[in-house]
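Ticket reopened. Same input as before:
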Amino acid sequence: MQRKGILIVVSGFSGAGKGTLMKKLVERYDNYALSVSMTTRSPRPGEKEGVSYFFVDKEEFERCIGQDGLIEYASYCGNYYGTPRPWVEQQLEAGRDVVLEIEIQGALKVKEKFPDALLLFVMTPTAQELKRRLEGRGTESHEVILGRLQRAVEESYGIEAYDYLVVNDDLDECLRQMNRIIDAARMRPSRNREFIEQFRTELNEILKGEN
Amino acid sequence: MQRKGILIVVSGFSGAGKGTLMKKLVERYDNYALSVSMTTRSPRPGEKEGVSYFFVDKEEFERCIGQDGLIEYASYCGNYYGTPRPWVEQQLEAGRDVVLEIEIQGALKVKEKFPDALLLFVMTPTAQELKRRLEGRGTESHEVILGRLQRAVEESYGIEAYDYLVVNDDLDECLRQMNRIIDAARMRPSRNREFIEQFRTELNEILKGEN
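Engineering reply: fixed in the latest deploy. New output:
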């Protein structure tokens, strides 16, 4: 059964470890491709075109919007960020699973355009653990951490829109769990329409041959 | 996270191996309980009360119907068959996953009453393989086999109502796949409402303590 890839949207609380999970998932398993976003913001030192982001100017970004060339986009602090559609669709057609990290609003837009997208929400086992990890980074002020926890409360009301929770306690176990969830998703009937259709055609041919 | 069990409904083409799969699933993994149906037909030699079926008379069965004591029921050849609700609910409350083998019509009724039920549809890898297995039993006439294949065509139009396909090629691999699908289902947000609620409460307490 040759199947199209799965579009996997990963959201989650800041500090829950989404970034690491996605990086490791792509490293450990062959079939994943990380989506690269397009942005109008300037490259930071060390960022690479086509790896960190596709860097474009405002005009080009807005032309993409006009051509429906983005799966979703948003603007933060005066800059656009979005997910280029052609690259994602190419990967899916080639049977690769595309992993996309976006916020809940973007995730819901993706689900509208790709009803078969798999929406995962990454959490820590407890709220205390989330706080501990945010503090453990040691790079953020108390105010920033409180802001992230406040945002987590707001985001927690959106979790029910996701298909699955991913609880990031032990990293390895969490990766296995994520991979199992995605693996199971391959067996949704909506992702196997051709297989079902072919089975039915074959059944009808057998019955015709017997009568 | 103490969770309620999952109600797993298994349907599939006659000859695809549902019965064996369910038996092995329960044998191999601890957390499954096979549902026992209630029927008004007479016990056959070797059938045991409470194991093969709960055998009751028509009056008692209809009292159960009246009391909404059955998750689903149907009548075949003048006899009632149904799934007793209290036993299933007890098992689910105790955190055990209940496996139920029923036809598509019954499966859809279960899904109405238990929207969180997981509907699995068992197929063979090909239609030819289905025919081969039906013939391999050596117990059924050519006409009966054709009838089953005809029924498979009709049932194939209902597959999209199921949550997942289970393709029974290699039995062991199929069991692992089934178990993975069920395992993934535990992480649906709708099955983790208490966990999400508790997380949010804890977050709010942290924020209150910090301000």
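The first helix of chain A runs from residue 18 to 28. The domain at 7-35+96-210 of chain A is CATH 3.40.50.300 (Rossmann fold). Please confirm and we'll close it.
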